[in-house]
């Protein structure tokens, strides 16, 4: 039996090859950050992202504990696994940050977004807008003779699909809240 020979420049999977196998693939992660609800905290968290060139796809923040004066910041970002780990570590070092959870890796999570769409149209376009709104379970929250404002909730793909269908009908304006997310189950 001959010993295994490796060509020059090839890598082996031995115990001596201790370099971590990091990927260059960009991944989307949803981070939930529990912070003190005080002036400047949001700016410090967001400054961490902008100061290092990290992109934020979605950002929501609201007070979740009135008595404890704590807010929850939900950030959706994209990066390589190394970048995501670096973001979480740096967030954890900011003093008013109490917890950092990566909902993407901690298990199943529920993500929802709310959006408002102003759609203008009369005649057949108006009828088509109402038909599509019914299919997507969007609510009419305002109506005039020549426009509607629809309210829709769901995951980002649903919101995007609704927008794509409303554009040719007469989408005038859209406002989105960004993603709110919670992990599923008991923990």
TrEMBL record:
<dbReference type="InterPro" id="IPR002912">
    <property type="entry name" value="ACT_dom"/>
</dbReference>
<comment type="pathway">
    <text>Amino-acid biosynthesis; L-valine biosynthesis; L-valine from pyruvate: step 1/4.</text>
</comment>
<keyword id="KW-0808">Transferase</keyword>
<dbReference type="InterPro" id="IPR027271">
    <property type="entry name" value="Acetolactate_synth/TF_NikR_C"/>
</dbReference>
<dbReference type="InterPro" id="IPR039557">
    <property type="entry name" value="AHAS_ACT"/>
</dbReference>
<comment type="pathway">
    <text>Amino-acid biosynthesis; L-isoleucine biosynthesis; L-isoleucine from 2-oxobutanoate: step 1/4.</text>
</comment>
<dbReference type="GO" id="GO:1990610">
    <property type="term" value="F:acetolactate synthase regulator activity"/>
</dbReference>
<dbReference type="GO" id="GO:0009097">
    <property type="term" value="P:isoleucine biosynthetic process"/>
</dbReference>
<dbReference type="InterPro" id="IPR004789">
    <property type="entry name" value="Acetalactate_synth_ssu"/>
</dbReference>
<dbReference type="InterPro" id="IPR019455">
    <property type="entry name" value="Acetolactate_synth_ssu_C"/>
</dbReference>
<keyword id="KW-0100">Branched-chain amino acid biosynthesis</keyword>
<keyword id="KW-0028">Amino-acid biosynthesis</keyword>
<comment type="similarity">
    <text>Belongs to the acetolactate synthase small subunit family.</text>
</comment>
<dbReference type="GO" id="GO:0003984">
    <property type="term" value="F:acetolactate synthase activity"/>
</dbReference>
<dbReference type="Pfam" id="PF22629">
    <property type="entry name" value="ACT_AHAS_ss"/>
</dbReference>
<dbReference type="Pfam" id="PF10369">
    <property type="entry name" value="ALS_ss_C"/>
</dbReference>
<dbReference type="InterPro" id="IPR045865">
    <property type="entry name" value="ACT-like_dom_sf"/>
</dbReference>
<dbReference type="GO" id="GO:0009099">
    <property type="term" value="P:L-valine biosynthetic process"/>
</dbReference>
<comment type="function">
    <text>Catalyzes the conversion of 2 pyruvate molecules into acetolactate in the first common step of the biosynthetic pathway of the branched-amino acids such as leucine, isoleucine, and valine.</text>
</comment>
<dbReference type="InterPro" id="IPR054480">
    <property type="entry name" value="AHAS_small-like_ACT"/>
</dbReference>
<comment type="subunit">
    <text>Dimer of large and small chains.</text>
</comment>
<protein>
    <recommendedName>
        <fullName>Acetolactate synthase small subunit</fullName>
        <ecNumber>2.2.1.6</ecNumber>
    </recommendedName>
</protein>
<feature type="domain" description="ACT">
    <location>
        <begin position="30"/>
        <end position="105"/>
    </location>
</feature>
<dbReference type="GO" id="GO:0005829">
    <property type="term" value="C:cytosol"/>
</dbReference>
């Amino acid at each position: 039996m001959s010993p295994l020979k490796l060509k020059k420049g090839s890598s082996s999977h031995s115990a001596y090859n201790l370099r971590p196998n990091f990927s260059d693939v960009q991944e989307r992660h949803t981070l939930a950050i529990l912070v003190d609800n005080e002036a400047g905290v949001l700016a410090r968290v967001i400054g961490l992202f902008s100061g290092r060139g990290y992109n934020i796809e979605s950002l929501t923040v609201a007070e979740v504990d009135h008595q404890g004066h704590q807010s929850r910041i939900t950030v959706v970002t994209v990066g390589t696994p190394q970048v995501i780990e670096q973001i979480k570590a740096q967030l954890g070092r900011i003093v008013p940050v109490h917890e950092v959870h990566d909902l993407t890796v901690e298990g199943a999570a529920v993500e929802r977004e709310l959006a408002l769409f102003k759609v203008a149209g009369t005649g057949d376009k108006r009828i088509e807008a109402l038909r599509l709104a019914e299919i997507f379970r969007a609510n009419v929250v305002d109506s005039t003779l020549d426009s509607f404002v629809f309210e829709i909730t769901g995951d980002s793909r649903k919101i995007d699909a609704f927008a794509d269908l409303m554009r040719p009908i007469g989408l005038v304006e859209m406002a989105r809240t960004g993603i709110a997310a919670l992990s599923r189950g008991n923990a």
